[in-house]
Amino acid sequence: MRVTNLYENKKPVISMEFFPPRNEAAEKTFGATIDNLSTLQPDYMSITFGAGGSDRDGSYQAVNQVMVEKKHPTVAYLAGYGLGPDEITEILDRYKALGVETIFVIRGDKPRGDDFSPHPDSFPYASDIIAFIKDRYDFTLGCAGYPEGHIDAESLEKDIEYLKLKVDNGAEYVVAQYFYDNAFFFEYVRKCRAMGINVPIIPGIMPVYTVKMTQMLSKVCGSSIPADLQGRLDAVDAEDKEAVLNLGIDFAAEQCRGLLKEGVDGLHFYTMDRSRSTTDILSRLKDENLL
Ligand SMILES: Cc1cc2nc3c(=O)[nH]c(=O)nc-3n(C[C@H](O)[C@H](O)[C@H](O)COP(=O)(O)OP(=O)(O)OC[C@H]3O[C@@H](n4cnc5c(N)ncnc54)[C@H](O)[C@@H]3O)c2cc1C
User: Worst-scoring range by mean pLDDT, 63-77, 110-124, 225-239, 252-266?
Assistant: First the structure.
């Protein structure tokens, strides 16, 4: 499945992102989560990749399970941080043999712990990895964009210049980091278009799952929490799991309505390997005939 065919022929394209199960308990629930969410008939599912390559086999197994065993259209990710050209080739050859046609390419970050040493010939930026892959393979490639700017970027404008380089080097669609204020996304797309980036830019949706996770991820990912959402988080009992989930579902559904109204090409859900929130949000949008 080439994601670009989907974006050319359907609007909005619904996609769901998963990370490979990290232990035996998660392995047991992973398949059930995929099955639950597949009832909503997403257009494709995608599987993340641990930077540094330590869990490359876990990602491969998850892609195999979702794409080959369960027969869902699937995108495999490759985070190239620290990997040498030979390692990237080996990973991609395996995906190619499995039948993967679309690879989402990110740089990734230095894995936690001091004992990781990057390969001496590893690539500094995602744009370099994309160029390397484009020269050697026939995959459709995607890349990441950051509506509020990447956390280490000199400026949003500079970050968009580097996004343009990723597209010029071969990325054919962009999935955006999540944001909690649609204005960031709309302004980002406007700036990208002004810079000549003409590929689909897909908004990422991260429902609030727990208050703690939202606060932690906001710092790591550089996605700010606007006053409106902060007010709702302050008003809820953080220990009341059901109330927090419902808050997250309400907020994300409102965001999706606003995005769909502006005619976005797709909605990409960061499921965090959980099914309830994405299910409720999509069911509401379907009930409202927005999908
Ligand atoms: C949708 C999505 C999915 C993701 N999935 C994963 C995953 O599966 N695994 C994982 O480990 N991480 C994942 N990430 C996180 C990502 O790896 C990190 O955000 C990482 O820090 C940057 O990756 P990138 O591909 O955007 O890097 P790049 O595009 O290389 O950018 C990294 C930084 O360098 C700057 N930069 C880029 N090019 C240049 C240049 N030529 N010169 C100077 N500066 C430059 C940019 O402005 C930015 O600040 C994902 C992020 C998103 C949005």
Answer: 110-124
CA atoms of 232 and 180, how far apart (whole Å): 12
Q: Is the CB of 126 under 6 A from ligand 1?
A: yes
Note the Cα 206 to chain centre separation in Å: 10
b/e code 38-72 from CB counts within 10 Å (16+ = b): bebebbbbbbbbbbbbebbebbbbbbbbbbeeeeb
| 3-state DSSP percent of the chain in helix, strand and coil, to 5 | 50, 15, 35
Residue 49 near ligand 1, beta carbon < 6 Å: yes
pTM: 0.97
Domain boundaries, the chain: 3-287
Q: Residues 118-134: what's their mean pLDDT? A: 96
Between the CA of 3 and the centroid of ligand 1 the distance, in Å, is: 20
Which CATH architecture is the domain 3-287 placed in? Alpha-Beta Barrel (3.20)
Of the pLDDT bands very low, low, confident and very high (cuts 50, 70, 90), residue 60 is very high
Residue 190 per-residue DSSP state = H
